[in-house]
Amino acid sequence: MSETLLLVLALAIAAGVVVIIVLLLWPKPPAADPAAEQRVAELNARIGTMGELLAKAQAQLQQTVHERLDAVSARLGDSMQSSTQQTTEHLQQLHARLAVIDSAQKHIGDLAAQVTTLQQVLGNKQSRGAFGQGRMEAIIQDGLPKDCYEFQATLSNKARPDCCVYLPDSPSLVIDAKFPLEAVTAFREAKSEEEKKAATARVRADLAKHIGDIAEKYLIPGETQDMALMFVPSESVYAELYDGFDDVFQKAYRAKVIIVSPSLLMLAIQVIQQIRKDARMREAADKILAEVGLLVGDVQRLRDRVENLDKHFGQANADIKQITISADKIVSRGEKIKDVEFGEEAGAEVIPAPVRKLEAGG
Questions:
Q1: What's the burial of 293, exposed, middle or buried (CB within 10 Å: 0-12/13-18/19+)?
Q2: Burial profile 21-57: b = 16 or more Cβ within 10 angstroms, e = fewer
Q3: Fewer Cβ within 10 Å of end Cβ, the chain: N or C?
Q4: Cα separation of 209 and 183, whole Å?
Q5: Inter-axis angle of helices 193-218 and 181-189, to 10 degrees?
Q6: How far apart, in whole angstroms, are the C-alpha atoms of residue 265 and residue 179?
Q7: Dist. CA 269–CA 258, nearest whole Å
Q8: pLDDT, tens digit (0-9, with 9 covering 90-100), for 85-136
């Protein structure tokens, strides 16, 4: 309903109220006055007309209100349906993300359990030694044949290194996989300057003792190489030691103990592989020289036979040329015979016909 209709309706209602008030306040005419009765009748007619107008306006107002309410209800229903659909989609996306988060949380829990297990392994000295031993064994087993190494071998002084690598025509190479990680862990966890200073001194002392033990037990002249390898099973620990404890590396080098990480041990294994290959080549040198001599003889015989074949080809080529000349002469004489031409050619050889001798009485 427009604003004009509402204004008309309000005016009609106000006029009706005014008419009712006037009727109530209008003095009653005398009973016998016909003019008053006529005015009352006209007033009643006007009141009836106003009532009808008021009823129509009220009906129009109700219809307009109902239409507006229906439109509002329809829009509200559409809006609620759209909101419900969007809310459902958002909830589905939220459930999917919650599922991903639950999966990630499960993986994080598994990883935390593994880290805890690894921490327990590294926290125990024997378990940590087994961990370093396992990594060292895996690297050596992947790079060398089984007859080239031995784990927990016994030396002449009853010492048992973690691994002995046998080199051709040379003493064995000793590899030690035990590493003092407690001092390095304390150095990493140190917070104050005093704790860090104490941990640094402990790292130097523990490494120096371990290097001395390796040099004393595993460096046997004539039985082992004049140097040994100390395996550090972590690249990060090796890098930290190399950056912060260069003096320890220098001391180990002077003691003929080389500190290696997993990557450096792999490089050493590759060098050992090349050494073994060169040794096999030297062992097979006599056989190689004999085979080379036989190969040279075969090549010389092949050369002689090629020369003979070349001579045969030359002689065959000359014979073919002579045959070609004779064939040309035969063709030429055949053409002359065909054309009945028997003139002598210059320089042509005349073959006399055979003469038959007459015998007596013949």
A1: exposed
A2: eeeeeeeeeeeeeeeeeeeeeeeeeeeeebeebeeeb
A3: C
A4: 12
A5: 170
A6: 15
A7: 14
A8: 888 888 888 888 888 888 888 888 777 766 554 455 455 555 455 667 888 8
Residue with tokens 């862990």: 185
Pairing label, strands 257-260, 224-231: parallel
Measured distance CA(247)–CA(217) in Å, rounded: 22
Any idea where the domains of the chain sit in the sequence?
1-28+36-71, 125-287
Residue 151's beta-bridge partner residues?
163
Query: Using one digit for the tens of pLDDT, what is the confidence trace for 244-283?
Result: 888 888 888 888 998 888 888 898 888 888 888 888 877 7
Three-state DSSP class for residue 259: strand
**Residue 273 neighbours by CB distance under 10 Å:** 14
Q: Residues 297-346: pLDDT tens digits?
A: 888 888 888 888 888 888 888 888 888 888 888 888 878 777 765 555 44
Q: Residue 173's beta-bridge partner residues?
A: 165
Residue 235 near residue 263, CB atoms below 8 Å: yes
Would the pLDDT of 37 be above 80? Answer: no
If DSSP codes are grouped into helix, strand and coil, which group holds residue 174? strand
Select from 143, 142, 145, 117 the least CA-distant residue to 131: 117
pLDDT digits (tens, 9 = 90+) for 144-186: 888 888 888 888 888 888 889 888 878 888 988 877 777 777 7
The tokens describing 261, both together, are: 């990480």
